[in-house]
Design a protein that fits this description.
The protein is α/β, with parallel strands linked by helices. The strands form 2 sheets. Strands 1-3-5 form a 3-stranded parallel β-sheet. The two termini are about 25 Å apart. It has 4 helices and 5 strands; from the N terminus they run ββαββαβαα.
């Protein structure tokens, strides 16, 4: 599981993305890429850009992508920018944790 920092603004985006990419490369495997957004306290639209890039990388490697513990303000920002369907979906399986919609893009089996 990848962990987002407490602050993710334009100032931290490049370093955060580099750190997450390195963690993904080390993690390897074919399991889902899960990002814990719970620590996020201060962020801007750059956080969305970082998450979209990690989602893109996960797709390129044939892996599912999920966001756990997304703060309500992150979900609101995603909705404002029109990317909530790409990143966030309603609470899943009664767990109360928003996750990315990557699995909705796949056909049901």
């Amino acid at each position: 599981m990848l962990l987002l920092p407490a602050t993710l603004t334009a100032r931290e985006a490049r370093d955060t993305l580099r750190m997450l990419k390195q963690a993904l490369e080390k993690e390897g495997g074919d399991s889902a890429v899960v990002v814990d957004a719970g620590p996020l306290q201060r962020f801007d639209s750059s956080a969305l850009a970082v998450l979209l890039e990690i989602d893109r990388l996960a797709q390129a490697w044939g892996r599912d992508f999920a966001i756990r513990s997304a703060p309500a303000k992150l979900a609101a920002l995603a909705k404002l920018y029109g990317v909530e369907g790409l990143l966030l979906k309603p609470e899943s399986a009664g767990v109360g944790v928003p996750v990315a919609a990557a699995d909705q893009r796949r056909p049901a089996t």
